[in-house]
């Protein structure tokens, strides 16, 4: 019996040592940049749960590194064009013969500086939300006063566009359970997107029933092609020329919309609108 116990003990120690070496080797590989490294341990291993935690960490690290590379590439792309224009306009200002030429080029430089300022603001916002998922506490939200502030901002944006764009709000719910600040940011982003692409009309609908809550933002613009309806929610993705021709954003707003929707336990989607353009929906 003592021999059997000793044999079982040595076997258990050997298995433990083997699994520890596997985890150690995987950690070394991960530190060397091999982000696809994973540890596969037997379900009976005393380190099985540790291996699962390691794999979860490695997967998250791979996602973060991919996001970092994407962010770096996108930022360099977004910065290149306004900086090139600023350099070009600066040379024109230095060579300007008349005050009117100088004033014209200074105005264009100011526009590019505003563009860079908006880009920096969106990047900071995205970075803050990317760092960690906040603790989202859903609370009872009275729809009318909450939506009134968003409507005021929307009508200001419509006024700045300077045409006859119609903005309609349909409220089919008295209360929602949501985080007011984040949800307002998401709806504001959808509204800004719709104002950018709509031809004549935008409709915002808020509804809630026992199955959940939904906010729809419809427009009569060019819509989103079926093949791009997931891509539009990817950071820094911007569509083809047909929808992008009037775009002044950086492809961050819709990514934030989906992130906020998922913090609420829901999602953001896009489909066809009865108005003829796109229908963006936040559901939770």
UniProtKB/TrEMBL annotation:
Coiled coil: none annotated. GO terms for cellular component: plasma membrane. Its EC number is 2.7.13.3. Keywords: ATP-binding, Cell membrane, Kinase, Membrane, Nucleotide-binding, Phosphoprotein, Transferase. PROSITE patterns: HAMP (PS50885), HIS_KIN (PS50109). Its main location: membrane. One of its GO terms (molecular function) is phosphorelay sensor kinase activity. Residues 74-284 form the Histidine kinase domain. The keyword DNA-binding does not apply. The keyword Cell division does not apply. It is a multi-pass membrane protein. It catalyses: ATP + protein L-histidine = ADP + protein N-phospho-L-histidine. Residues 14-66 form the HAMP domain. Signal peptide: none annotated. InterPro entries: 2C_sensor_his_kinase, HAMP_dom, HATPase_C_sf, HATPase_dom, His_kinase_dom, HisK_dim/P_dom, HisK_dim/P_sf, Sig_transdc_His_kin-like_C. It is found in: Cell membrane. This is histidine kinase. It comes from Usitatibacter palustris. The gene is rstB_2.
